[in-house]
Design the sequence.
């Protein structure tokens, strides 16, 4: 994926400029910086903090939809963190 943005010589943006970003610009930021973002999901079974990386972002009507890496799984219990948090291994699920 290529982007037509040149950030060389860029300056720090003001909060007002950031607030004026379009939804497409926000979506693009999530796509470009996905590897740098981790989303806190919650605490599983009181034992483990659950989080997931960003897989992608897209426009969904009037919002930016951020899709987590766990969203591409057929079942979130395929993720080892969820298995550990909720006490189920793949062998137990079979």
Sequence:
């Amino acid at each position: 994926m290529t982007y037509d943005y040149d950030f060389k010589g860029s300056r720090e943006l003001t909060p007002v400029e950031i607030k004026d970003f379009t939804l497409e610009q926000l979506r693009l930021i999530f796509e470009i910086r996905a590897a740098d973002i981790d989303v806190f999901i919650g605490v599983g079974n009181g034992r483990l903090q659950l989080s997931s990386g960003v897989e992608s972002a897209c426009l969904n009507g009037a919002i930016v939809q951020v899709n987590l890496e766990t969203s591409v799984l057929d079942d979130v219990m395929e993720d080892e963190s969820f298995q550990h948090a909720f006490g189920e291994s793949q062998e137990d699920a079979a």
